[in-house]
Amino acid sequence: MSALFIGLMSGTSVDALDAALVDFSNERVPRLIGEKSHIWLADERQELLALAAGCANEIDRSGRAGQWWSERAAALINELLAEHQLSPSDVRAIGSHGQTLRHRPHSDYPYTLQIGDPCLLAELSGISVVAQFRQRDMAAGGQGAPLVPAFHQAIFAQSERCVVALNLGGIANISVMQPGRGVRGYDTGPASMLLDGWCQRHTSKAYDEDGRWAASGTCHQGLLDALLAMPYFSAPAPKSTGRESFGMSWLEQQLVLVGTDIKLEDVQATLLALTATTVADAILREAPSGELILCGGGANNTALCQAIAAKLTHWQCKRSEAYGYPAQAIEAMAFAWLAMRFTQGLSGNVPEVTGARGARVLGGYFPA
C-alpha cells in the first residue's frame, strides 16, 4: 500500500493554493517529496474574498467557485506528480481542506463551510480524496479548528524543552508542546489577513513584502489599544477565529471609533504590532522561554518576525526550514497527514485543542 499522500491547503489569507506531496513510510519523520503552489489570479482571489465577506447571489457564485477551485487543485496536483515522474496510482489519497467561506463554531447551529468539491477533485485527479475534516470535529462538539497542532506535535515535539509552532497565515495560531504534557493550541488572532487587506486596498501590491511598508510607519498607540480591546484576545482556549471576526469591516469600525486621521503606513505598522503583541502575549502565557518555530507564509514577513522575536527575548526563534520543512508547506503537509490518519482509522483531532468530546477520525472519503 502506498505511503504517498498529497495535502491541499488554501487559507484565510487567500494568497495561494498549496499542495504538498509527502512520504509517510516513516510516520515519525515524514519526508516532503515536493511542493507546488497556484498563486490565485486577481479575479480568482477577488471572488473568494467576496464570497467570504458575503455578496449578492452567493449561493450560485459559491457553487461555481467550488468547481473551479477543484479544477485548479487537480491541475496543480497533476503538475506536481509530473515533476516527480509519478502517476495518480502512486498516491494513496489527497487530503483537501478546501477554501473556508464561513466558520461559525459559536452559532446557535454551529457550522463550517468550505468550498471545493471532493467528488470532482477525485474524478479529475484520479486519486481518492479525504475531505470535510472540520465538520467531523464540530459534530463532536468541537470548534473544528485549529487542526494542525496534532501534526505539529508529531514532527516538532521535543522531550527536553517547550516548543511552540507558530503558524502565520491569514490567522495566527500556536501549538504548544511541553515535555510530559499533551499539545495545546488555538488561534491567537489576525496575522496576514489584515496586513494583506490594508496593503491591497491602499497600494498596488498584493502584500507588504518583508513588512517594508509597515516598517516605514509608526504604530499608533490609540488604534492599537482599541484593537487589543477585542474580547477574543483575553478569552480562554479552546478558541478559533477567522475573517468573520477580524475582517476589514472590523478594522474600519475601529478606525471610526478612534476618530482621528492616521497615516496609511501608520495603520499598517499598527496592524503589524497587533499581530506581534497578541502572538507574544499568548506564547508568554504558556511558558517564559523555549523554542519558537515559525511556519506559514507570514514567516516571510521579516519585519513581523523581528517584532515577534523582540517581544520574546528568552525564546530561540527559528524557521521550520531548520527541521527540513519549508514554512509555506507545513499546513498542506498537515492535511496530507490527516488523510493518512484517516486511511489508518486513527484520530486526527486533539480534543483539548478543539473542545470536542473526544478523539475522532476526521474526514469523509471520496474514492477515485
From TrEMBL:
InterPro entries: Anhydro_N_Ac-Mur_kinase, ATPase_NBD. SUPFAM superfamilies: Actin-like ATPase domain (SSF53067). The keyword Transferase applies. The keyword Nucleotide-binding applies. GO terms for molecular function: kinase activity. Gene3D superfamilies: 3.30.420.40. Its EC number is 2.7.1.170. ATP binds at G11, T12, S13, V14, D15, A16, L17, D18. Pathway: Amino-sugar metabolism; 1,6-anhydro-N-acetylmuramate degradation; Cell wall biogenesis; peptidoglycan recycling. It catalyses: 1,6-anhydro-N-acetyl-beta-muramate + ATP + H2O = N-acetyl-D-muramate 6-phosphate + ADP + H(+). Catalyzes the specific phosphorylation of 1,6-anhydro-N-acetylmuramic acid (anhMurNAc) with the simultaneous cleavage of the 1,6-anhydro ring, generating MurNAc-6-P. Is required for the utilization of anhMurNAc either imported from the medium or derived from its own cell wall murein, and thus plays a role in cell wall recycling. This is Anhydro-N-acetylmuramic acid kinase. It comes from Paraperlucidibaca wandonensis.
